[in-house]
Amino acid sequence: MSISTRETTSHVFRRLGLGAFPDRVVASDGLEDAIAAALDLASPAAVPPELEPPSSMESARDREANRPILEFWFEQMLTSDRLIEERLIWFWHDHFATSILKVKVPYLMWLQHLTFRRLATGNFADLLHAIAIDPAMLMYLDGTQNRRGAVNENFGREVMELFTVGHGNFHEDDVIAASRAFTGWVVNIPDRRWTLPDRAPWSAVFVPFRHDNGPKTFHGTTGPIDTAGAIDVLLDHPATARSIASKLYTELVGAPPDEATRDSLAVDFRRDYEVMPLVESIVGHPDFTSATAIRSKVATPLERALGAVRGFGDKTDLAVRAAARYLDVVDYFPFRPPNVAGYPEGPRLLGPHQLIHGFDLAHVPRAPVPDLTPEALLNRLGVFDISESTFAVLENASTPETRFALAINSPEVMLT
Amino acid sequence: MKHARAVDAECVLTTRRRFLATLGAGAAVAVGGTWGMSVWSRDPAFAGLTLPAATYGIDTPNRTLVVIEMGGGNDGLNMVVPYADNRYHDLRGDLAISDPLPLDDHVGLHPALTNIAMKYSAGDVAIVEGVGYESPDLSHFSSMSTWWSGQQGSAGRTGWLGRYLDAAVGGDEPLAAVTIGPGPSPALLGERSFQVAIQDVSGLSPNVPPWIDDKVELMAMWTGFANPSLDAPDLAALVDVAIAGSAGAADTLQSILEGVGAQTDRAPGPTGLGEYLQLAARLITSSEQPRVIYVHGWGDFDTHQGQLNRQGAMMEQLDAAIGSFWETLEIAEAADRALIMTTSEFGRRAASNGSGTDHGTASCALLLGPAVVGGRHGEPPSLSRLDTRGTLVHTVDYRSIYTSVLDYWLGADATEVLGASVERIGLLRPEDPKVASPFVH
Asked: Is B275 a domain residue?
């Protein structure tokens, strides 16, 4: 079956944004126009609300504090005109996975989110330096426990295995050297005996006597390497650019790049680590809009939820709450990746639990559900090429309600 | 319009019949069949995921591991009480259990555990004392991650049971692993295997708005999307297989669980451990017996205050639930199908804080069932040599229990699943040919 231009245009928005954007597909004037719109960062970035820092650990753990943060983020994911920015913010959240279940302080997750928002489309080197001393990350991977004479290797290992050079590109000696380099950071929790009043509450603070400033050999570099120095060594390592370029390519295209493509992207990326030129190179690759790329990924619960809300939600927060409940049930919730390796992907998203609860998304529209044709229903979910069997099932639905519930759980929306 | 509806109703019936036909005479066959290991493993796009299922040399028919997670940190000292040790009474003061059910001259069970005490006398309970892990962290999250992953110091990308399921089952049996509780458990997180999470007799059922009046019809129609003639080994075919498998699993679960509510005289809804274990018993006696049932999210063992009453109530619930669980299995002549294992992320601090106990380290674990080597195992943690935080020093690596369960009950290679060879402490009866494992040399 040949792929229509509208389906390819929808593919562009589905991959560069989060979820489907049917209105934009209809409004686009060809693929070039769609790509330009999805990558456009000309409209002003959202101004995040100013949240009051909690005054103590006890008050900071209040679950209610999560509400304005999640409301803001969902609002941006659903309505921002800076599509690629929201895609990249989620990409970095998934890459530098940090969970509130361990961090426990919504305000720290918020600070980290603001860092992603600030740097998502900016510079990867800046982002990596920021994350290495990000307070939520310091709590999540035990950086605050990591001090001279009592090294905690949690961050030192994951920063290489998952965040930069990748498995096979470091040795155990490097883990120890990195961990020593990262010693000395604490989070300035307010209302503690040792709280530093002249420093911002909840900021990362370097405590020299906790830092191991002895000589270390890290990936062949020897010296009294500190946190920034160790991050620089990792940025200099060619495997870092290769793994990030490859991961972003896979995210956008749906399959890993061949070796030549990967290496060429990595060489360019490593020059200055600017993210948008890398995105543009990947999007400019013929693979990106090829027939094999279209619907070659399993749609994540987040993409399905956002697509359903855009297609059928009203202007109240009813739809968002329904989407959030679904994401909670299938355990694909913002700020709550299941582990440091990030959110599940691919066929693992097709388990019985995840698929059956796809019907929970039927709560998104306010009743009565619109009586639409199969084609109109799927178009509103960003699907323009519809298989005959899907069409037949929707045609046979006895009521508009059933037809709608089946449409949001059709095989077409499970792939992106 | 009326006419159109009539036609639609006819189509629905047809679809429903087709759905039932794909399920075949026995739902059990259909689940395996429609889930289709063929498509699942044939797809070159998932070549990395295509380890052959059931790589293990022995079959483990009719055997279910039931894990009961006691979240929050269960106080081992007040569950298996070292009543003869004066230091226990010194450390615990008013919080000491004054009337334990003595098992021998040294320890006794919490007085609420009467069913378990009887089972202990019959040789069906293995008590492991001093269970913990190296360099313990007093945080719930870190400790739970350690227990879930089964790998020391690991960030826990997969769970220990998830890795077992990956190797033994893969994606081929949608009901191989059932979680009973608020949602999926990280312990069962695999790379290619799935867990089905249920909370009550409604089983694997979506939460849909009231305007969907017939969920059964909806599910039946949904399977119409799964086009059985589609044989191209691509992602679209995989989606078809997944839809058919999910609907089949939901339908099978529903028929298995029908009547459990009536039996326990409870309406569907949030339930306690007793109801959870009745669901487990029903699954175990069904034709789709899961390999692993993971029960979690009941009780709160984080007894910083009000410990005597709070833990006492939970011990009562545990004992009653386990008692009626075995009763149900015995009536069905299926007692030998189950092994129960309790876990908790840590024990409590040795000393009382006045009304409760703070986070600690070592605790105890129970294994129950006809396959266990009854009695006390491990070494009771010393009450005179505490660590600098005033917590017990563990004597048994928690992975020793996993090792016994994997090797002798699940017929898996524990060393491979855990990524480490851990000392075995003889918790299950290796002399029983049914329990023999080719991986134990």
From this structure: yes
